[in-house]
Design a protein that fits this description.
234 residues; alpha/beta; four-stranded mixed β-sheet; four-stranded parallel β-sheet; 8 strands; 36% helix; hydrolase; Chlorohydrolase family protein
Length: 234
Amino acid sequence: MAQSGISSLINARWVIPVVPENKILEHHTIAIDNAGDIVDVLPIEEAKKKYLNVPNVVDRPHHIVLPGLINMHSHSPMVLLRGFADDMPLMDWLNNKIMPAEQKWVTPEFTKDGTTLAAAEMIRSGTTCFNDMYFFPEASAEAIERIGMRAAFSSIILKFPSMYSDTLDGYFTKAQQLIKQYKNHPRIQITLGPHAPYTVNDAQFERVVKMAHENNVKIHLHLHETAAEVEGGL
């Protein structure tokens, strides 16, 4: 009979866990239960004796198995703008190319489709969690909820109207709605996304900090991306 509750075994040449740190396990098995959780990591020979007749056994004799990678800063829907206006100074690229294109083309459908494509590329390269900032984060969250990855989505805030919000207050209203919608979600977090010091004013930053404290959420922004920004902030 199969070991109760165990659905899969992964036998790998090397397993690199998070805990303990700086340790590589050779010729080890990862046991996964019916809920999809890792419940055991042990030498392959021990696993053969402990877990019998498991329905799904994956042998990877020449591979490393390690936890999923995390992309700490992304604009996932922008995969649909790949190759558009490359090799330009940041402000010229942003103000004269990207923002006009986004205002013209970006919709919830654009965001959802771009996030779906980006998720496929991330999964293929071993990334299972990402920290994202873009317009219509609710569309991105909907896509990722279906796909099954983990993600944090920033509710973007700007000092000017956009296709996402006609008013400055609207950015905060949308953020509050998203925070409420995804509170306690097992895989998706909502953060506040004041875009950058050059696109958000001081009063908005103060409001962001207050809202973050009140809702116990994180803040995600661009800061000191170029030498000119660093010099301008001194």
